[in-house]
Amino acid sequence: MAEKVYPDWVQKQKTTGTTVKKVGNNYYLYKHSSKRVPGKKNPVPADTYIGKITPDGIERSGSKKVDMDTPEVIVKEYGFSMAMESLCPAGWKEPLGKNWQKVLDFIIVRESPESYIPQIREVPQQLDPHIQLGAQKSSLLRRMRKGYGVEMRDIRPLMTIYIVRIAGRSILSVISDSQKEILEKLGLKLEVG
Question: Rounded CA gap, 18 and 25, in Å?
């Protein structure tokens, strides 16, 4: 069988143990191997896709060229963080005075490291030594349970609601029916501005 003739830029990518397949006007590189199959007399070809061959080289499987002019996209957790902020009782805030926001932000970011909060406010790396995180978190959860009848485990499913920022515009990810039920039960509306 005569070997196929490909353009030089395609032939340059073909090495020992690989094969080239042409589909339409595109060329693809595969690792060529074979495997034994019970009941078959001869080994069966088992090619593994490596990538698309272009004049610039190989576009590896799972990688795509990134257009550097593409606007920046930022994806952050939003649902859980917003619920925690909205459900934070005034009775918990008062004893902390002006520090309540930092403590709340610290608790939220510890629970949800991908929270949107560090994008809009500075979250301390550590709390002041006189503020006991465990006691404050327990107090917050106790007051949320008493005031709203909600546990943290009840709002954890909201962690998969994301805020997506593209070129200065913000949108929310899809909200599932079960997440909508949680939001309705708590009387929360998630909106972005």
Answer: 19
Q: For the CA atoms of 85, 90, 94, 100, what is the dihedral angle to 10 degrees?
A: 0
3-class secondary structure, 179: helix
Q: Note the pLDDT tens digit of each residue in 133-150.
A: 888 899 999 999 999 999
Residue 158 DSSP class: G
Beta bridge partners of 60: 51
Q: Which domain holds residue 88?
A: 73-186
- 73 SS3 class: strand
136 and 178 within one domain: yes
Confidence at residue 63, expressed as pLDDT on a 0 to 100 scale:
55
Q: β-pairing, 18-23 with 26-31?
A: antiparallel
Q: Does residue 191 form part of some domain?
A: no
Nearest C-alpha neighbor of 59 from the set 23, 18, 26, 11: 26
Q: What is the pLDDT of residue 183?
A: 93
Residues 111 and 166 in one domain: yes
Strands 73-77 and 169-172: unpaired
The whole-angstrom separation of Cα 78 and Cα 192 is 10
Among 22, 38, 60, residue at a domain's last position: 60
User: Does residue 92 lie within any of the structural domains?
Assistant: yes
* One-letter amino acid for residue 191 of the chain: E
pTM over 0.70, yes/no = no
